[in-house]
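REQUEST ID: PR-0412
SUBMITTED BY: lab tech R.K.
PRIORITY: routine
TASK: structure prediction, single protein chain
INPUT:
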Amino acid sequence: MAIDLCNKSPAALADGKAGAWADAAADPVLLEDLGTEQRDALNFAYRTTLSNVDPRFVAGDPAAWASDFGYALDRVAIRLDNRSNDELREQALNHPDPAMREQALFEYADRDHGDAIELLAEAIRNDRDRQVRWDALWAVEKLGGPEAVATLQTFLKDSDPEIAEWSKLFISELQTGDPAFDGRAGRFTPGRTFDETIFLLIHCDLYVRLDDSNQHWGKISLAPQGLARIYGQAHACPNVATREKQLVIAKTIEGLHADGSPHVDNYLFRGFTDRTRRDRGNFFFESLVPRPFFKSGRADDPSAGVREANIGFARYGTWHLEPQFKVHDEWAIRYVRGRFQGWGHVNLARIAGKPLEEILTPGNGVLSTLHDPEVGPMTNAFILGTFKGKLNDWDGDGVIDLNSRDVYSTVDGEIDSDQDGVPDEPGLTCCDWTTQQQLP
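STATUS: complete
OUTPUT:
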């Protein structure tokens, strides 16, 4: 989350440094051209961001704008990534592992350096991994401002249509608060469990309580690929008939099982959705699922003991519908964005003194809860982040795929290895660690 506060302090905007928005880039959208709802949303975002600065800048009651726990922790937490800025710049462009290149990019941007957008743009131009490229585009949007808009505009005609569309989407969000899309057709595949399978980009900060005094906190900022490597790549899986009250987040961790099979970890969310506008839904969903809690701090590693516990998580945000994509005579979700929060356990002894390559490994972090007599005292991480996901063309045929992604879940979150809609074992939503051989 803290990257979202970068490039926005009063000092960064002082003395007219930002310039007029009309001079920011080609074809600017002016504030007076926005609709009332768009302007209201941007004003809310503006006041919320000010929670990071002098509270006297905040209009009205500070309880509404200055009570974000994650932002409060970000002011006092020490970085647990102690790489130098020069190391980050070098690894962002040259590390052989794309997840590590991306991690260096996000860490550098999170440090609020003046040349962060320039470094991100270089990676977007030259990186060989398309996910590094579109995640770096997202980091540019997070930094925001006229330079971000101008940078994103240089990728509107990229040869990769997903890079071009993400650029268009982020520019529109920065200028209007709403996404925009290209004109490609979409394809719905009948007979699959879910009407849509939306690949999620997730960025988060883990704020780790370093001792019982509550005065010392550490921070680990996870870029999307690093987060997916540890906790699993997530897909949002809605069905039109139930999407306003129920959703499955299907996750898979690669590289955890010795036989090469993915580690499946599904979460059933329920909540409310506001549908006062036909083109979108504003939602708040929660999940509470039974999970084995591994006291070692690593998934499927029972060496320090295992405790069965109920793990909770919350996600909230907005999904935007596409009138051109129809599923069961209803508009499909084209794009979703929002925030999430939860609790975790980080085994500090396991990661102390190790290079980041040995920390960002499959399953090397577990979600947790405060509401269990054994697990609660071991919970030492507050997890706060943002997510975005849009429909993509995954097979390169020029048509956007609505529900082609492989997700191993029933509509209720139970594991479904052959994706036939029938659970492998009723009630089982996470791989049974007792039947899997873990990689060392």
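NOTES: The longest helix spans residues 161-176.
REVIEWED BY: pending
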